Amino acid sequence: MTRRALPQHIGFIPDGNRRWAAHRGLPKEEGYRFGIEPGLALFELCKKLGIPEVSVYGFTQDNTKRASPQIQAFRAACVEFALEIARRGAALLVVGKYGSSQLPDELRAFQTRQGEGIKVNFLANYHWEWDLAGLAEGEIRSREVSQLDLIVRWGGGRRLSGFLPVQSVYADFYVVDDYWPDFRPEHLDQALTWFKQQDRTLGG
Amino acid sequence: MTRRALPQHIGFIPDGNRRWAAHRGLPKEEGYRFGIEPGLALFELCKKLGIPEVSVYGFTQDNTKRASPQIQAFRAACVEFALEIARRGAALLVVGKYGSSQLPDELRAFQTRQGEGIKVNFLANYHWEWDLAGLAEGEIRSREVSQLDLIVRWGGGRRLSGFLPVQSVYADFYVVDDYWPDFRPEHLDQALTWFKQQDRTLGG
Questions:
Q1: A142, A137, A93: which is closest to A114 by C-alpha?
Q2: ipTM
Q3: A57 closest CA partner among A111, A149, A124
Q4: A133 vs B132: CA distance, rounded Å
Q5: Residues 185-204 of A with CB under 8 A from B
Q6: What integer pLDDT is reported at residue A134 of this predicted model?
Q7: Which of B66, B172, B203 sits opposite A62 (nearest CB)?
Q8: CATH level 3 topology of A8-147
Q9: pTM of the entire predicted model
Q10: A–B interface: beta-carbon pairs under 8 A
């Protein structure tokens, strides 16, 4: 049983955009664009801390069943976030169903990892069944994404919601009750402090 | 978004047996036998509440790398628990690697579901990779285990530790800080009360 210092791979589930907007009397879809700046701030924090790899839940195939203004809004927010971190310097991989109109064109260049720097796996038009279906041909479709040490979810939900099931099997799961647009750097600090206190047994 | 009443399938991760023993100055392996009575009490509670299906984490292939007295002790505890719930009335299925000496002989009869009553999926000599490897032949090996609504883990750990990754994708995750041998019925009551307050979105 050993205690670890810094997680080598963190997963982020930035949930609560719609509830954040509704609490402010805004249309639900307005919430997504207020999630971009927090995402960039979190990205910069992870770079500064020297986290080698992060995975970010953009949107899922299930999400594309939502009302049309919401779909347009989260697609636009995901594209803006992804292109901006690529511009700032990241080894960016988009993980999701490629042969589908639901994947924004701007993200297609990242079907193979592009760029140098912190590894960012951005899940867009992702679905856990699509991912695991790759095993029928020998490997999961997210095969380039390593095992997660820590998952941080905003918005209070205590579930994975289909997030990278294979990479999540041994990950510690930290929940922030605040909605994602209310992200503060302390959230990550608290998650990392908590993480250091967890035992790592891997069943041994 | 709908709110649910009773979970139709609950997963239980009864962790903390060794730490419980160590806190009492007992050898670690002594902890496991103190987990049997709590398991039977929880089983009776679920039957009384009308929960249709439960999955219980017995032991994993990783666990069989532990010290020999521990292996003997958790195997014995798992056999005693499983045979007793079969005797009391359950539709019992043992899920784990069958062609292996690590699976106790007494459990081999349950490689196909036996008996009538509440469905109990008991994971013994289980490993998530073994489970998913079934997809290469078309289906996961735990194909008879339905999707989980709720997972309850004792012992404070906030991770799945390889527990049924496919069935866990949408499950709500409730953590009890007490060690498993200190199980009290209130733990389940609290988990169910919490569960009713969770929103069910499935990404829609």
A1: A93
A2: 0.94
A3: A124
A4: 10
A5: 198-199, 201-204
A6: 96
A7: B203
A8: Undecaprenyl pyrophosphate synthetase (3.40.1180)
A9: 0.95
A10: 89
